[in-house]
């Protein structure tokens, strides 16, 4: 399978929202997706197949000197082909090398074992439990990946919106 990672375009929104709704019980609304895109367009990437069908996306921001991965999802029919890995590698490369982020951070549901394993394989570590993080009262884990060449200790500030 040939996958191309590229920057999000506004015409991709409908397909991104389909993947979002398929992937998560609670969805980010379209206006928030577009707000994030307008505030940091280089952090919104999509994966497309050889027919130019969008099959996944990742959204990231820069906050307080750190990259913040807001959301990542892959169409269920395209999972386990390395698309999520390609998306996260692309956004990390941009955040670490172009934006000079010290860390990449993300929040994931405490009980989402599949997602946590995905991040552990990519060198993310648990940093802190975020109690009652989600609207339904579920807890999250703040996960962090340190820039590979970072020397010294730097605080990690995260905007919890």
From TrEMBL:
Q: What is its EC number?
A: 2.3.1.267
Question: Boundaries of each N-acetyltransferase domain copy?
Answer: 3-148
Which CDD domains does the record associate with it? NAT_SF
Designated name of the protein: Ribosomal-protein-alanine N-acetyltransferase
Q: Does the keyword Transferase apply?
A: yes
Which Pfam families does this one have? Answer: Acetyltransf_1
Q: Which UniProt keywords apply?
A: Acyltransferase, Transferase
GO MF terms, alphabetically ordered: protein-N-terminal-alanine acetyltransferase activity
Q: Which GO terms describe its cellular component?
A: NatA complex
